[in-house]
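Hi C.,

You asked whether I'd gotten around to modeling the 347-residue construct. I have! Everything is below, sequence then structure, no commentary in between.
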Amino acid sequence: MQRTELAELGEFALIKHLTQALPKHNDTTILGVGDDAAVVAYPPEMQTLLTTDLLLEGIHFDLTYTPLKHLGYKAAIGSFSDIYAMGGHPQQLTASIGVSARFALEDLEELYAGLRLACDRYGVDLVGGDTSASLTGLCISITCLGMVEKGQAILRSGAKPTDLICVSGSLGAAYMGLQLLEREKRVFAGEKEGFNPDFAEREYILERQLKPEARQDILLALRSAGIRPTSMIDSSDGLASELLHIATESGVGVRIYEDRLPIDHETALMAEELHMSTTTVALNGGEDFELIFTVPLAQLDELRTLEGIRIIGHITEASAGCFLVAPDGTELRLIAQGWPQEQAEQA
């Protein structure tokens, strides 16, 4: 395949090439790519949400098994998830990249194809960014702007005793997908030729790691049912860590129940194969981008009408602490252990 060296284009031609013919999805975008800054304008009854993420090669992703298009998609999804976790809707995205000499124009086209796909799928405008040379590999900085009605942002600080603790989807799948990819990478390193990775019947956990989705659907379902969570956060750093954030910011305690943790069949099989506890995986496996939220007990009936949401426990007084309750009644203190990608790659 022919590869176009980035030096042949120069910075401005590269940016123009990567961002040409970007569609506009939102009326809040007045001017996108093409000037010194983008111009956005939100209605006076709305407030602005802003989130940013920095992704570094060798720390947050490994290009041995991460296609660049998937990387671009996932980078955007992580920022969208942060906006949804505040009860808002993402509107604009900027993407800045640092790139070393080993990358060609075609590589960056793939990365931007993933960014564009995510923006098109979620109705977000890609309005700018920057490029720079890098001596160490690929780095990506994502900034996302969103909007929420004034006073309606869902914070981590609103949980109250007796609130129900809920989670969307399943937990631990992305981390098990990462462990599978790391295992096959190690096998590949020891093979001289003829290596075929073994991904049979593991499509779900691989997709959760390489091409996750943000849970806009859950936010819309809650709104349609008339349910406004008292607190909410996404599961990018793992269930235990995120619940401890809510407990700290809200000044409350937490009780969740081990037998209520939502764990997918493929996740459980992979954990068993790797001799790992499914409970540990569910508590500490990050990057699932599910929504973790609390709802008043009085809205239990409304919650039960919604699909894809599991009630896993309840909020207590702060003095009761934060615990996982085993099926036999044993209480285990929640610890924010986490499973960051860099830890897995160094294992």
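If it helps when you're writing up: Residues 105-122 form the longest helix (18 residues).

Thanks,
B.
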